[in-house]
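Pilot study result, target chain (202 residues):
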Amino acid sequence: MTTDQNRLGLGSSRFMWEFVKSPTRTASVLPSSARLAARMVAGVPERGEPVVVELGAGTGAFTHAIQRRLGGRGRHIVVELNDRFATRIARAYPSVEVVCEDAVRLPDLLAELRVGQVDVVVSGLPWVAYAGQPPLIESVARVLSPTGVYTQFAYNWTRWAAPARRLLDGLRTHFEEVVTTMTVWQNLPPATVYMARRPRFT
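Predicted structure:
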């Protein structure tokens, strides 16, 4: 069991149960690995007071990595639709601002928190989250600073599916630069990370 699972009181079986109960709200049947988490948070600045927004924290693998990289700096906001995950994240990480809401409302949620432009958005959301209206990718692009970065992971075996292709097309529409990282083989299943920069809505 990982540090994150210990801290949250969530083992793999509990994570899988959350997926079974609500597969459209849980991105995977297993928590993400530390290697994937490190790749996902690579865009978090090592200096200054960055504002980092995390979408779909789940068991907190990315939350933990973001907190370590921030080292007490800046502001870390989690938007998690699953109330059980949201409650556990809030208890495990008191310095993180946790909002139990749908990420599609991101611009309004950040306005309510009096947050201006965001430096980094890290997303652990499932594909279905991107099918709503208004488009989630557009919402993310609108809240990012001109130098901001947006990361989203994709499992290798689903990258060629229609929802994954639509996501990638959406990223290329709303961002000037989209880079696909090398495969993280140490994750189960193996995954890659999309890193999008220079939002077109600034």
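One observation from the pilot: Residues 162-174 form the longest helix (13 residues). A full batch analysis is planned for the follow-on phase.
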